Amino acid sequence: MSEDDLLFMDEEETESKDEVVPWKILIVDDEAEVHDVTRFALSGFDFDDKPLLFLDAYSGQEARTILAENPDIAVILLDVVMESEDSGLKVAKYIRETLNYTSVRIILRTGQPGHAPEKSVVRDYDINDYKAKTELTAQKLYTLMLSSLRSYRDIVCLEKNKRGLEKVIQCSRGIFEKHAMDQFVEGALEQLVSLLFLDHQPELYSYDGLAVELKDTTRLKSLCSHGKFTTRGDFCLSDLPEDVRCIFKEAISQKKNIFRENDLVVYCEGKRRAILMYVDGHHVLSDLDKELLDVFTKNVVTAYENIEMYEKNQQRTDDLVAYLAELTECRNQFVGRHTQRVAAISAKLGEYLGLAPQEIAALKTAAPLHDFGNLMLPEELLHKSGALTDEEMTKVRTHTQRGADMLAQADQEILKLAGRIAQDHHEKWDGSGYPHGKAGEDIHIMGRIVAIADVFDLLACKRSYREPWPMEDIVRYFEDQKGKHFDPDLVELLLTHLDEFIKIREKLPDPENISDQ
Q1: Which of 53, 92, 327, 500 is most buried by its number of CB atoms within 10 A?
Q2: Which residues carry this modification: 4-aspartylphosphate (predicted)?
Q3: With contact defined as beta carbons under 8 Å apart, do 52 and 22 qualify?
Q4: Which CATH code fits 332-516?
C-alpha cells in the first residue's frame, strides 16, 4: 500500500503525561504566624506519594475567592474569628451550601474554643473536625492531616466510581441509539474517550485514537481515527508503529481488552465481525477503571451485534423493496427506469429540504413503490396508449388506495412508509387531488416530495403517444402549479437546483427501445 493510504504524524519525545498532582491545602487565618507554623509543621509531608500544596487566605473573603477557583482543595484549616466573630462559620456554610463542595475536609481551628460551641458547629456546619489551636502540636497536626487526606481520597474515589458507573450507563445508552455501523463505531470511540477522561474534557486533552474492523489476523480496515492516525480504508497490521502493532497483536490473539500504562485496546467481537478501538494518552488506569471498561465493552459488543442484526434485516427489507419495485416495473412496459429516477430525484429533494440522512435513505428506498397499486390494475388498462375514458380513469385512481392498503399490512416500517407515499402522491396542495382530497401539510411530506419527482420525470419522458416535454415547458408547468398541485416550497427547491435534477435524469436513461413500445 502507498504512504497516502496510511499516514502517521511524526511522534515527538514527550515527558510522562501523568504528572504528580499535589494535595491542595487551604490555610484560612488572619494571623500570618499561623500560616508559617502550619507550613513548617507539615514540611516534607506526603501521602500516597503526593506532596502538599499550600494556599493562603487571610480573611473569609479571600477564602471564598480561592475556593471558587480551586474546586479540588482537599483539606481546609479554617479559623473561626477573623474580620468578624463568625467569619469562619460563614465560609464553611458557603463551601457546603453555595459551592456544594461535599468532598473537602473542613477542620476548624480556633483560639477561642468557647466562642463557637463544638457540638453545634460540627453538626450545623458539616465540619469534619474542631480543634483548639493550643492543642494542635506538630505531631497531632501531622496525624490530623493524614486522616483527613485519607478520608478525602476515599470520598473522591467513591464519587469517581459513581460517576464512572453513571458514565457507562450514559455511554451505553448513546451507542444503543446508533443504527448505522459507521455512526456506531465513531460514537463508541467518542464514548470510550469520554469514559477514559472522566475527570477531564477530552476535547481539551491530547490523545490519539483509532477504531478498526478486523479483516483477518493481519489486515485491518480503518473506521475512524483521531490525532496522529490519519488512516483510510484497508491496511496491514505491519503498517502500524511497532508499539501500537504489539498491543493490537496481543488484543487480537487473546480476544480481550489490553491495558498498558498510557494506552489500551478495547476488543469487541460480534457474531460476524470484530472491531478494535485504540486510545493513547490517557491516565494510568486503576483496577476499578478497568472493570468499568470491561462493563462498557460488553455493552458495546451487545450494541454491535444488534447493529449487525439490524443491517442484516435492513438488507433483507431493501432486497424485498427492490423486488416489489421491479415487479411493478415489469407490469408496465412504458415505465423504463422511471421508478429509479423518482427515487433519486426524491432523495435529492429531501436533501435540499434538510431531511435527516436516515429519512433521506428511507425515502429513496420507499419511493419506487409509489405506484405499487398498479399491480392490481388490468394489464390492458396499463398499456392503453390513447386517452382514458372516465370509467377507466376512475379505475386507475384506485391504485393509490389499493397500493397503500396492501403495503400497510407489512411489518417493516419502510413498507409502511411506502404505503403512505402510495396513498398521498396523487393528492394536491389545494385539495383537488385523490384519493381523499387532502390539502397542504395534511399530505405526508414524503408524498409531496414524490409527487413532484414523479410528475417531473414523467413529463420529460418520451412515450409512444407523445414526445417529451421541453424543459422550459416543464419549468413553466411547475411555476403555474406551485401552490395548486404542488407544495410551493418544494417547487422552489426543484427549480433552484434544476440542473442537479436534469443530471439525475441523464445518468439514468431509459433503454433505447422503451419509448417505441
Answers
A1: 92
A2: 79
A3: yes
A4: 1.10.3210.10
Compute the distance between CA of residue 148 and CA of residue 130 in angstroms, rounded to an integer.
Answer: 12
CA dihedral 137, 140, 146, 150 (to 10 degrees): -130
Residue whose cell numbers read 455493552: 299
Q: Calculate helix-pair angle for 445-460, 413-424, nearest 10 degrees.
A: 60
3 state SS of 267 = strand
C-alpha–C-alpha distance, residues 393 and 372, integer Å: 17
CA atoms of 158 and 272, how far apart (whole Å)? 38
Name 145's Cβ contacts closer than 8 Å, sequence gap at least 6. 25, 42, 45, 47, 52, 75
* Amino acid 202: pLDDT: 47
pLDDT of the residue at 347: 97
Let me know the angle formed at the C-alpha of 80 by 78 and 83, rounded to the nearest 5 degrees.
Answer: 110
Using CB atoms within 10 Å of the CB of residue 218, give its burial: 0 to 12 exposed, 13 to 18 middle, 19+ buried. exposed
The domain limits of the chain are 23-158, 177-308, 332-516
246-297 pLDDT, tens digit each: 999 999 999 999 999 888 999 988 777 788 999 987 767 878 778 888 888 8
Strands 46-47 and 50-57: antiparallel
Q: Is 472 in a helix, a strand, or coil?
A: helix
What Å distances lie between residue 328 and 5, 332, 462, CA to CA? 44, 7, 19
Region 23-158: CATH code: 3.40.50.2300
**3-state class of 44 per DSSP?**
coil
- Pairing between strand 23-28 and 105-110? unpaired
**Residue with the three cell numbers 491542595:** 24
Question: CA 367 to CA 447: how far, in whole Å?
Answer: 9
- Provide the residue type at 378 as one letter: P
Tell which wins on pLDDT, 486 or 300: 486
What letters, b where the CB count within 10 A reaches 16 and e where it falls short, cover 299-324?
bbbebbbbbbeeeeebeebeeebeeb
User: Which residue is it, cell 394536491?
Assistant: 428
* Residue 281 Cα distances to 16, 284, 300, 301, 517, angstroms: 10, 9, 21, 24, 68
Task: Tell me: pLDDT of 344 over 60.
Answer: yes
Cis peptide before 435 (omega within 30 of 0): yes
Element (H, E) at 403: helix 390-408
The closest of 424, 396, 422, 395 to 407, measured between CA atoms, is: 422
Q: Which residue has the cell 489500551?
A: 264
Residue 30, C-alpha cell as written in the block: 488572619
CA 39 from centre of chain: 49
